[in-house]
Amino acid sequence: MKTKATSTTHTRRAFLRKSAAAWATFSIVPGAVLGLRGQTPPSRKLNLAILGMGGRAGQIAGMFRSQNIHGVCDADARQAEDGRKHYGPAPFYQDYRRLLDKHEKSLDGVVIASADNTHAMLATAAIERGKHVYCEKPLTRTIGEARSLRALAERGKVVTQMGNQGHSSDRIRDVCEWIWDGAIGRVHTVHACCGSNYSQIERLALLAERPPVPPELNWDLWVGAAAMQPFAPMYLNGKWRSWSAFGSGVIGDWVCHVVDPAFWALDLGAPTALQAEVTGFDPAKHAATFPSGTRITYEFPAKGARGPVKLIWYDGSERLPHLSELGKDHTAPATGALLVGESGVIMHGSHGAGNAQILPDEKMAAYKKPAPKLSRVKGSHADDWFDAIRDGRAAGSNFTYGAALSEIALLGVVALRFPGRRLEWDAAAMCFRNNAEANAYVNPTARKLAS
């Protein structure tokens, strides 16, 4: 994503076109292949900047404040009042470009905890300065941004990590190893959900109000590369997730947590088709927000030794089905997944397959777990990023992996605009083969900042 402060838009677009075919055969790229930047002594703390000082910055502060925080930033200066207490005396900047220019020589990396609509813009600016990047999920707000950012990170040879913290858990590794061991036979269907409801249909009329922009808010910077919208207070303080101009709804907020285990274990890659069904939602009248209930069916082709997989995403009023394998003693989670195999089911919660178990119960009791095949992360998801920087290797949820996982969610966001219509996705060409109108949402033109 480009601003006036950068000048490589055309080069990156050409690179993006060349890399599109490679995306269809996506794999996790080892650090050695990427030629990541040299090691940092393990005894040295990293010098970091925190971009985005709202609620999320405070929630993840415990993972980062052990390092040297050289600067913090938010387009809304009011966010700094609460946010800065988590990061000590680090200087505050309202403009991320000023921060990066001021501390470019001293920074090792950047942590991005802003709204989705600025992820790509901020990460691009950091990577173009050679900085390692940790970015909250979903990686970006559009598919085109995700593809571009992934390509830029690989070309820049920086260490990246998307903030789906459960990817560093032991339990997600257990689930991968169970599936690879054939614990439930061939997995053919995945039911995944989040019971939250972000719909703002009843508040749509409030968008017509025109209060003045607060003097502490730089609205141009806050909007970032998204299309300019009139200021509305309801966009601020995390509420942006409910509005399509800036967020990606429940599906964008939760797929990277809930679908991560299946995505990794089954090496899902990109779907070939998807179709959305919605509750109480008119895509023309309610385009500014999201449905109160969603069911999206994805079709993944056979790959390697596994057969085709159907992934069904549910959110809001749509809930997971009660499969017979759950019996009377288990209830499908409000947020989590059911991985259905030929000889059993794995049920788990969110954030790294929490509370994962094989069902029926007698199957779990009789199962002999295989020897671990995956190394376990020592510490937190951030620690994995720190260690990857110091070791000169790829982090577990690097942007190659994170962009592909985010794309599952972002494809769903597009499908919500065309409920009841099966969309055929060509991953290599990055387009829908049967819906030109849907293609307009894949890679919209990025807005340039006014200043």
Question: How would you describe the overall organization of this protein?
Answer:
This protein has 451 residues and is an alpha/beta fold. The chain has helices spanning 9-23, 31-34, 55-59, 61-64, 79-83, 96-103, 116-128, 143-156, 170-180, 219-223, 249-258, 260-265, 361-366, 381-391, 399-415, 436-439; strands at residues 47-51, 68-73, 92-93, 109-112, 132-135, 160-162, 187-194, 273-279, 293-300, 309-316, 336-341, 344-348, 357-359, 423-426, 431-432. The strands form 2 sheets. The chain has a 9-stranded mixed beta sheet with strand order 13-12-11-7-10-9-8-14-15. Helix 1 (9-23) crosses helix 8 (143-156), helix 7 packs parallel to helix 8 and helix 8 runs antiparallel to helix 15 (399-415).
User: For this structure, what is the CATH class of the largest domain?
Assistant: Alpha Beta
CATH architecture of the largest domain: 3-Layer(aba) Sandwich
Strand segment tally: 15
What class would the helix/strand composition place it in? alpha/beta
CATH topology (level 3) name of the largest domain: Rossmann fold
Low-confidence blocks of residues:
1-34
Instruction: Give the termini separation.
Output: 15 Å
> How large a portion of the residues is in β-strands, by DSSP E?
15-25%
Could you say how many structural domains there are in total? 2
Q: Based on Cα principal axes, name the global outline.
A: globular
Going across the biggest sheet, name each strand in turn.
13-12-11-7-10-9-8-14-15
What is the CATH homologous superfamily assignment of the largest domain? NAD(P)-binding Rossmann-like Domain
